[in-house]
Amino acid sequence: MIDHSGLWGKAFYRHWLQQQDQVVKVPVNDLVVPESGSKGLHEGIGHLISWLATAGRIANAQTEDVLLAPIESNVIPLPHQLKALNKAMSRKQVRYLFADEVGLGKTIEAGLVMRELKLRGMASRILVAAPKGLVSQWVSEMQNHFNETFQLVIPGDQKPLDEQDNISQRYDQVVCPVDSIKPIEKRTSRMPSAF
């Protein structure tokens, strides 16, 4: 936060966005300042500054060059992961294949893109198709790093409630084994392929 100012009877806080080298104004009425006698004054001010930084980034997100996912996740992305996120988000329609070596963080890269799409209102339903041995890891990593809850759907485990029930419509965020989305003729267990 740089300073407090007023214009035409309205008060504002000015906040500097270091990465963009820009200053944004936030109306005082949009902020809740903790009382000076409150127990967690310093903690409250820290939350206020964090809120101001986030509000400033969101306000500038319309410029298309501001990435929100890195500040909205529980992970500190590595430079190559930020580069992948930036490249994936550089087009209006996101179509991007992550094919890094083992251990370089493809799950984090995909989670950052997923989170960015959700924050921008560009995605509401997500399907992750992963190798069978990694589906539990995907569910766990999305929860731990991005606070996103995914339902693990294994063919044969999810039974329809009635004839009208479509399993793929029950959940907005699903992780399933890659084999479960193969054409029915090529697999033995049945799972709806229309997600």
Please provide a written account of the structure.
This protein is an alpha/beta fold. Helices cover 30% and strands 16% of the residues. It has 5 helices and 6 strands, in the order E-E-E-H-H-H-E-H-E-H-E. It has a 3-stranded antiparallel sheet with strand order 1-2-3, with helices on one face. Strand 5, helix 5 and strand 6 form a beta-alpha-beta unit. The longest helix has 19 residues. It starts with a strand and ends in an 18-residue tail after the last strand. 19% of the residues are buried.
Give me the Rg, rounded. 22 Å
Biggest sheet strand line-up: 1-2-3
Mean pLDDT: 75
Work out the helix count. 5
Low-confidence stretches: none
SS content category: alpha/beta
The succession of helices and strands, N to C, reads: EEEHHHEHEHE
Secondary structure: number of strands: 6
Provide the β-strand percentage band.
15-25%
Main beta-sheet annotation: 3 strands, antiparallel
Span between N and C termini?
45 Å
The helix content, as a percent range, equals: 25-40%
Approximate shape? elongated
Give a quick rundown of the structure:
The chain has helices at 41-59, 79-88, 106-119, 135-146, 167-170; strands at 3-7, 10-17, 22-27, 126-130, 151-152, 173-177. It has 195 residues and is an alpha/beta fold.
Core attributes:
16% strand, 3-stranded parallel beta sheet, 30% helix, single chain, 3-stranded antiparallel beta sheet, elongated, alpha/beta, 195 residues
Describe the protein's topology.
Elements: E1 3-7, E2 10-17, E3 22-27, H1 41-59, H2 79-88, H3 106-119, E4 126-130, H4 135-146, E5 151-152, H5 167-170, E6 173-177
Parallel strand pairs: 4-6, 5-6
Antiparallel strand pairs: 1-2, 2-3
